[in-house]
Amino acid sequence: MRLPRQSPAEYASFWDDVAAHFPSLKGAASTEYYFECERMLYEQFFPPLRDRLLFKTDLWDEAKNTEILRYAAEQGARPAGLDIALGIVQEAAQVLREHRPGFIVGDVRAIPFRSDSFDLVYSMGTIEHFPDYDVSVREIFRVLKPGGTAIIGVPNKLDPFLRPLMVCLLQQCGLYAYGREKSFTPHALRRLLESHGFRVKDTSGILFIPGWLRILDLWCYTRRSRLTWLTGWMVRPFAWLYRRLPAVRRHGYLIACVVDKPV
């Protein structure tokens, strides 16, 4: 999918509007499953977090979703991050206020930090929203310290539940709140990251679940709370499979490459 080019001001305006009107997804069954997937990524692929400077390329999860950066801070990481929307940054800062986060308004295509600043970088579902996603990758490489580790995730073009097709249809109907996004095959993501100097160490993924079930669970959570017992029950088998069968993780609707920056 070819993404439309917009100015940074247009992107900021769009996401500020989303931040103002989008409900919190915290507490939904599929969000708890999402958090478990992210926590397992951290535990498996990041080194011990204590005293590590951890940078996150957007703060949507902290404002509306899994609060994964708060989990990292509770393990001793020093959290930093940016988001293009002021409202998202303000909400995220409130969530992590006890951990004194270094959050700023900014664009992942022009990260306002010095080169070689961070021990760890986590970017899940960020770069695919920009047509010049390769610029974002170059910036992530720049701010990561030599020897540092990054986890970079994007929508999976080969999702067995056909989520990219579902997203495309929803976008055509004006029913997809997250704007345009590009999906990648695992091979294409790996090639992109290696072209900017990263060394790919492993490939995994999160959210092995049909996209329609995630959307249905969130709709029930925010609109029909009496039905969440049903969608919660439907989410459980996929969480169990993710937990018990590592082979299915690469087939989540977000793929994740674990990379480092050579010394």
Explain the overall architecture:
- The protein has 263 residues and is α/β, with parallel strands linked by helices.
- The chain has one domain (8-260): Vaccinia Virus protein VP39 (Rossmann fold, 3-Layer(aba) Sandwich), CATH 3.40.50.150.
- It is 43% helix and 18% strand.
- The protein contains ten helices and seven strands.
- It has helices spanning 8-21, 29-45, 60-64, 68-74, 86-95, 133-143, 163-172, 186-195, 211-223, 228-244; strands at residues 53-56, 78-83, 102-105, 118-124, 144-155, 199-206, 254-260.
- A seven-stranded mixed β-sheet has the order 3-2-1-4-5-7-6, with helices on both faces.
- Helix 2 runs parallel beside helix 10 (228-244) and helix 9 runs antiparallel to helix 10.
- The radius of gyration is 17 Å and the shape is globular.
- The N and C termini lie far apart (35 Å).
- 44% of the residues are buried.
- The mean pLDDT is 94.
List the helices and strands and how they pair.
Elements: H1 8-21, H2 29-45, E1 53-56, H3 60-64, H4 68-74, E2 78-83, H5 86-95, E3 102-105, E4 118-124, H6 133-143, E5 144-155, H7 163-172, H8 186-195, E6 199-206, H9 211-223, H10 228-244, E7 254-260
Parallel strand pairs: 1-2, 1-4, 2-3, 4-5
Antiparallel strand pairs: 5-7, 6-7
Helix pairs in contact: 2-10, 9-10
State the order of secondary-structure elements, H for helix, E for strand. Answer: HHEHHEHEEHEHHEHHE
Widest sheet: strand ordering: 3-2-1-4-5-7-6
Give the structural class: alpha/beta
Number of strands: 7
Mean pLDDT: 94
Radius of gyration: 17 Å
The N- and C-terminal alpha carbons lie at a distance of 35 Å
Number of domains: 1
Low-confidence parts? none
Q: Find the CATH superfamily.
A: Vaccinia Virus protein VP39
Q: Globular, elongated, flat, extended or rod-shaped: what is the shape?
A: globular
Q: How many helical stretches?
A: 10
CATH architecture: 3-Layer(aba) Sandwich
Helix content: 40-55%
Beta-strand portion reads 15-25%
What is the C-level CATH assignment?
A: Alpha Beta
Q: What fold name stands as the CATH topology?
A: Rossmann fold
What does the largest sheet look like? 7 strands, mixed
